[in-house]
């Protein structure tokens, strides 16, 4: 298991949580996709969310930074309610890096420019500082030699690592990953997971929707199994994966492990 420098051992006090989700409901029309989700992510914790397609995993992740508007419930980011109608959503969102399944890089910009544009326009950094930060993060993900390349000339794994570097260049307090390896060829998955493991070791708070059970077992502090819009089971990843308590978890894991 990766050791996290400041990871709380038993984060029962939710007031200090990085992400705190309370009684979250989300409807799309008449379809209730999230049915009263209640959980939290402690600072410097890695929480992995698993479950079948359509279980609500990605919707939950997208609600955390209000890419999806919850129907009801509350979400707190470092103690501030992002779901409050009066919240400064842009300011709170700036603390949250997001990495998508599809890389969402600007195709007409070089890798370096993909990493600097939001720093300049959102963070207000000067060009030199933005480039310095971008290059440091490209080095972190092993892409220094690709700064002048365009996204079309990158492999899927390189594109995803560039997307991670772009998110890190905004200096977030936490990172959300929405199935970051599911669009990749199998031999490229390891490079992306290695970058994510390094982030965990450095103490980055992370919420990861994933199908990579090995990553969840090795790096995760908490594993959340979702099905049908509810959290069916949650706990230590090694315990849940080795000895799932709920019949639905057992059935799901028997198919994927």
UniProtKB/TrEMBL annotation:
Domain (ABC transporter): residue spans on this chain: 19-253
CDD domains (alphabetical): ABC_HisP_GlnQ
Gene Ontology MF annotations: ATP binding
InterPro entries per UniProt: AAA+_ATPase (IPR003593), ABC_ATPase_HisP-typ (IPR030679), ABC_transporter-like_ATP-bd (IPR003439), ABC_transporter-like_CS (IPR017871), MetN_ABC_transporter-like (IPR050086), P-loop_NTPase (IPR027417)
Highest taxon, organism lineage: Bacteria
Family per similarity comment: Belongs to the ABC transporter superfamily.
Membrane topology recorded in Swiss-Prot or TrEMBL: Peripheral membrane protein
Keyword flag ATP-binding: yes
Cellular localisation: Cell membrane
Protein name: Amino acid ABC transporter ATP-binding protein
Source species taxonomy: Bacteria, Bacillati, Actinomycetota, Actinomycetes, Propionibacteriales
UniProtKB keywords: Amino-acid transport, ATP-binding, Cell membrane, Membrane, Nucleotide-binding, Transport
